[in-house]
Design brief:
Length: 136
């Protein structure tokens, strides 16, 4: 079910996702594009599947995705979504972040090219479908 918007589109043509009273900030998305040597794909994917999960309970964290593109230059794309840019910034300075990144396979990361991008979320399909596994 696609959510309806009962607001005045002329006044607010693109209402922020997750807007609450007095809170205009949109969710923040941080993306890391990794170009990993082919011989390291399996080990890197296994590492991410077996991650420490310290971010999962961090205030403001929404979700994490690991993608294997079927086209383009990157071999893997890592996406995290946050309630706000400030929440992401707090995590980047946290002990949880330091511990999580200390577990990365240093030898593979040394051979990996990384490019980062940051976005403001305008539309999230999770709103259309509700919680994972729910059926309307």
């Amino acid at each position: 079910m696609i959510p309806s918007y009962d607001g005045d589109a002329a006044q607010d043509p693109a209402p922020p996702v997750g807007r609450s009273e007095g809170h205009e900030e949109r969710p923040f998305i941080f993306i890391s594009h990794l170009t990993v040597p082919e011989e390291d794909h399996e080990v890197l994917e296994r590492h991410f599947r077996n991650r420490a999960r310290l971010v999962d309970d961090f205030p403001g964290f929404l979700y994490l995705l690991l993608l294997r593109p079927i086209s383009g230059e990157a071999t893997h794309t890592f996406v995290t979504a946050w309630r706000s840019r400030e929440d992401f910034s707090r995590y980047m300075k946290s002990e949880e972040h330091r511990i999580s990144h200390s577990r990365e396979p240093a030898d593979i990361m040394a051979r990996t090219e990384v490019r980062h991008e940051a976005y403001e979320l305008l539309m999230d399909p999770a709103e259309w479908f509700g919680p994972a596994g729910s059926v309307d």
